[in-house]
Each structure stands twice: as C-alpha cells, then as structure tokens.
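Archive entry. Fields below.
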Amino acid sequence: MKIRLIAASAVAVFAFQLTLVNQVFSHGDVSPQAVDTEGLEPLGDEFLPENPYRLAGGEQYALAQEIGSSAYNSNCARCHGLEAISGGIAPDVRLLEDGEFGDEWFMERVRKGYSQNGAYKMPPFQELLSQEAMWAIRSYTETRPRPE
Ligand code: HEC
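PREDICTED_STRUCTURE:
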C-alpha cells in the first residue's frame, strides 16, 4: 500500500515535471531577440575555442559584458533566471568553470541546445545568435558574482 502510494506520487511528480518542461520549451521556442554587437571585434564564421573578448580585455571585454547583459536577459533569463541567478528551472550558469574549459562547454550547449526524448529542454541558438553575441553573453555570465 505504502509502496503504491510512493509510486503514484512519483508518477505525479514526473508528469508535473514534463508539463513544466513543455511549458518552458514552448516559451523558449518563441521570438529570440536579435543582438546588436556593434563595436565588438567581428569573429568570422569559425567558432573560437576561448572567449576572445576576455582575452582582449579592456574596453572590448567591458563592452562585451554590457551587450551580453541585455542579450542574456532577453534570450536566456526566462529559464536560467534574471541576472543569471537561477530559480531552479535550469542550471545556474554562474557555476560554469572559468577559462577555456568552461568556454567550450558553454558554446557547446548554447549552439546545440539540449534535448531529451526528442524534446528540446533548451533550444539550439546556433541559427539565432551570432558568435559575437554568444561570447558577449559568456562575458556577462562569467563575471556575475557566484552564489555564496
Ligand atoms: C527554454 C529554456 C532555456 C533557455 C531559453 C535557455 N536554456 Fe540553457 N539550459 C536549459 C536547461 C533545461 C539546461 C540543462 C540541460 C542539461 O541538463 O544539461 C540548460 C543548460 C545550459 C548550459 C549548461 C549548464 C551546465 O551547468 O552544464 C548553459 C551554459 C546554458 N544552458 C546557457 C544558456 C544560454 C547562454 C542561453 C541563452 C542564449 C540559454 N541557456 C537559454 C534551458 C534553457
């Protein structure tokens, strides 16, 4: 009896999570926001392995963070939380590793998204955002203070 109850509630929780994911996806699926990257060094078609604006430092890095802030908040915040503070729907992107290792993982996910059982939990941004915009977002999230 007890086991049945537990099984039933596990199914309920699972069903609830599915609904949540579907809702999140249908949200995430609509109207990506164009990002104006004027002023940032153009990067060409080849994807770079490491954040070029962090490597450039100075004004380029500062501008990348500024552009990344609005690009993040209009494209990613609905799942990853305003100002990169996760509310629990999706991972906290402030916790990614620093440097090239974190950069690679970031780009992999942002370009290709993430799907499970044929449904996207995170849409791929490859066709939606320029490489410049992606690195601008990385510049923003990697400089947000980490949680305690
Ligand atoms: C529709 C919701 C949704 C949107 C919009 C979204 N993501 Fe995600 N993202 C997710 C989910 C869910 C995961 C967890 C996938 C997994 O289990 O690895 C994820 C994973 C990630 C990861 C890997 C995190 C880790 O700790 O491994 C990164 C980086 C990331 N997202 C960045 C972004 C960026 C940048 C944007 C905006 C350009 C964005 N996401 C937009 C839902 C979303």
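CURATOR_NOTE: The first strand starts at residue 114 and ends at 116.
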